[in-house]
Amino acid sequence: MTHPPVFGAPARSHLFNEDNRDHYVHAVTRGVAAVGEQLATTRQPFTGITPAELGLEVEVVDLDSPLGDGEAALAEVERLYLRHAVYFHDVKYAAHLNCPVVIPALVGEAVLSAVNSSMDTWDQSAGATLMERHLIEWTAGRLGLGPAADGVFTSGGSQSNLQALLIARNRAFARAQAHQTPATDAPIRLPEVLSRLRIFTSAASHFSIRTSASTLGLGFDAVVAIATDDAQRLDPAALAAAIADCLAAGLVPMAVVATAGTTDFGSIDPLSQIAGICALHDVWLHVDAAYGGGLITSRRHAGLLEGIERADSVTLDYHKTFFQPVSSSAVIVRDGAMLGHVTHHADYLNPRSASLLVPNQVDKSIQTTRRFDALKLWFTLRTMGADAIGEMLDEVIDLAGRVYAVLRAAPDFEVVVEPVLSTLVFRYWPPSGDDLSQSQLDDLNVGIRRDIFASGEAVIAGTTVAGRHYLKFTLLNPHTTLADLEHILALIRLHGGRLLAPTRAVAHV
């Protein structure tokens, strides 16, 4: 077997260490400069290149034949990635929950990547452990969860939701064991309990609730979808009725998942009412605030989270409304002791004998190796402060309200609900389209989104409401103006008109 030739210096010369610090500084600085150069020439959020076109360029790269030169490798990355990346900082990116990121967090990213601490144990992280714990305390304090609260950083909202529901599941199992009678019976096993557990959440909640239920062995059917009101918020009366039905059937209400900022509508469930229902039945209340969690930094809109302080667990994504790079999320519980439901001890890592002597974060996490993502938020808070984050979030919330007024006044758009946060769901319905069927309107709006993305001039999202296709703006860029979004609306009209033209021509033949 032959091996590709080795270029340049020995492989170990590429390792990050004190001997190579000049190489490290130069190489990283050059990479940062390449990003800056790309920003200087980028005028729209996307180039419009297709997967087939870019795939041809990527597939011919022989990964077994190194270029032997960092500059050459960087030039390749510029051609294959930087040139064609989707840029969330662009003012005409209005699609998903992707935020532009603040520079202090990027400094933190550079530092944490180089040092490469692993957050599972104290002897792999030292001060990083204490800094992450301090940020968890800060977040819990802003949420009002009380002095016993604790938590851990995670990779994202889906993992945070999974960990919260794992805790709720294990809590329900522990209770089933405690109520087992008589004591002489064989110990109850988890599989015997799983089929009876139920999770209640709104029909507008994130899909990760259902995938978590499946991952935890409950199955998709264990998730009971609760009806929403006209504002896409969970209906408390429907929740109370569903829990009563569950109990009457001899089933176990394991958890209720309320949402503070649904992905599609940004709607916030009535948290105080839901908390009251959960307290009445002693059901675990988890609040998925992956989107709306940033409101804890807002001086004008923090009241939208009223009731979240009564939650048993909360998910927040700092990489959404805190303007942090991915990944950066957390799951926080009101009673830190509940994190014991996910604790496992390994003699080589976190032996029981050391558990009370050193602060090992793996004791609280379902991950082992984990990045020091908390450093990005630390840099941000210490450089800008929480009020600055809140001001930017307030700006995009205000912008969403102004766009809503424009859409409501326009005869050729139909908007679903008034925004609470910064998302708007709407569809293009031209005045000349009264003779179009619902299916044709669906095809029209799907086609508009596709063609705008292909043009690269803007990026917008899409979703369905009651089975019909709609367009969606998700606004997280405080630099975006009403004029920028009116330009996107003009693009929607332009592409909609082009798509309708052949239909009209055929109709008049």
How many runs of DSSP E, i.e. beta strands?
Answer: 12
Order of helices and strands: HHHEHHEHHEHEHEHEEHEHHEEHEEH
Straight-line N-to-C gap: 68 Å
Fraction in helix: 40-55%
Strand content: 5-15%
Mean residue pLDDT:
94
Q: Decide which structural class fits the backbone.
A: alpha/beta
Can you list the strand order of the major beta sheet? 2-8-7-6-5-3-4
Oligomer: single chain
Give the arrangement of secondary structure elements.
Layout: H1 21-41, H2 51-59, H3 70-80, E1 93-94, H4 103-115, H5 127-143, E2 150-154, H6 157-178, H7 190-194, E3 197-202, H8 208-215, E4 223-226, H9 236-248, E5 252-259, H10 271-281, E6 284-289, E7 313-317, H11 318-321, E8 329-333, H12 374-383, H13 386-409, E9 413-415, E10 423-428, H14 438-455, E11 459-465, E12 468-474, H15 482-507
Parallel strand pairs: 1-11, 3-4, 3-5, 5-6, 6-7
Antiparallel strand pairs: 2-8, 7-8, 9-10, 10-12, 11-12
Task: Write a concise keyword list for the protein shown above.
13% strand; alpha/beta; 5-stranded mixed beta sheet; 509 residues; 12 strands
Q: What does this entry show, briefly?
A:
The chain is an alpha/beta fold. Helix content is 42%, strand content 13%. A 7-stranded mixed sheet has the order 2-8-7-6-5-3-4, with helices on both faces. Strands 1-11-12-10-9 form a 5-stranded mixed sheet.
